[in-house]
From TrEMBL:
The protein, known as: Lysylphosphatidylglycerol synthase-like protein
Membrane topology of this protein: Multi-pass membrane protein
Transmembrane feature ranges: 6-25, 45-64, 76-107, 119-143, 149-174, 206-226, 238-255, 267-289, 295-313
Pfam families with a match to the protein in the record: LPG_synthase_TM (PF03706)
Main location: membrane
InterPro entries found in the cross-reference section: L-PG_synthase/AglD
Length: 315
């Protein structure tokens, strides 16, 4: 896991340097500095409040699922986990590292592997519910505003093709033999895993519903960051339209093969937010939006993850 996160961080930094450099070169003018100096501070603060709300719902989702199987930890530790999970999700393709980080952080609390895996599985399923519920809205927005959504999908497809070819090439060049666990161990582990999954299905339905509502609150908070940031730029119109326009971005960012949707999020942001901002505002808006909505939390999570690793290695 550590090597995965290290390699992912290196790739993330490279892609960010490239995408941010492109945005600055294409959009930054003399007027851009004036925009930054005149940002409305109360709405900028509101974006950070939505970010805190995002982590609060993320904390609650895992906290509720953990309590369902009698795994207890403090709410403060839950916030630490949320930031660490964001780091893991940001340095891995399709945000899968968020689940890996959650497994590690929950195992630190002394829970069994099977219990932790059931919690993380239900966390993933509850998160998918929002994307299922949001699919009709995405299709409706695609029908009404194809000029916004189609460029985002084209960027996503292009990145998938490039990274898919790079992955296949890497597998051919660096193929390694993998030791396989015994069939007996797999069967025993699967039985215990299914046991905990049944607990959510038959005895803890209310807990699972709570995790679904928390997941919806999490993604809604994420989507509210951009409209609040637009208000700090003095854009009072189109709040709801701006909220909806991000649906396509949300899908491609969370499915992107690049770490944390890097590159896709930035270039897709240019395509989506162009309809709401002046050209000299657009680039700095996208950079601020990505920093606030993801990269600041990932940086904090990376520091916390490192501290947890150091503490565990000293034991």
């Amino acid at each position: 896991m550590r090597k995965t996160f290290i390699y992912g961080t290196i790739i993330l930094v490279v892609i960010l340097l490239m995408s941010f450099s492109y945005i600055i070169f294409k959009t930054v003018t003399k007027e851009t500095l004036g925009v930054l100096l005149n940002l409305k501070k109360r709405y900028l603060l509101l974006t950070f409040l939505f970010l805190i709300l995002y982590h609060t719902f993320d904390n609650l989702r895992l906290y509720i699922l953990s309590r369902a199987v009698n795994l207890k930890y403090s709410l403060f530790y839950g916030y630490v986990m949320s930031f660490v999970n964001t780091f893991g999700a940001t340095v891995t393709p399709a945000h899968v590292g968020g689940e890996l980080a959650a497994v590690y952080m929950l195992l630190r609390k002394g829970a069994s592997v099977h219990k932790v895996m059931s919690i993380v599985t239900m966390k993933t399923i509850s998160g998918l519910f929002f994307f299922i519920l949001g699919l009709p809205i995405f299709l409706w927005h695609l029908y009404r505003n194809p000029q916004q959504v189609i460029p985002v999908l084209q960027i996503f497809i292009g990145v998938v093709v490039v990274f898919g070819l790079a992955y296949v090439g890497g597998k051919i060049l660096f193929q390694k033999s993998i030791s396989r666990p015994s069939v007996k161990k797999i069967k025993e582990g699967l039985k215990r895993y299914i046991y905990y999954m049944k607990i959510f299905g038959y005895k803890r339905k209310g807990y699972f519903l709570g995790s679904i509502l928390s997941s919806c609150g999490l993604y809604i908070s994420f989507l509210l960051i951009a409209p609040a940031l637009a208000k700090s730029f003095g854009r009072d119109e189109g709040f709801f339209e701006l909220f909806l326009s991000q649906i396509s971005l949300l899908y491609v960012i969370f499915m992107s093969p690049t770490p944390g949707g890097s590159g896709v999020g930035e270039l897709g942001g240019l395509a989506v937010f162009a309809a709401f901002l002046e050209p000299f505002e657009l680039g700095v808006f996208v950079i601020l939006w990505r920093l606030i909505s993801q990269y600041i939390s990932a940086l904090i999570g990376g520091v916390l993850f490192t501290l947890c690793l150091i503490k565990d290695l000293r034991r």
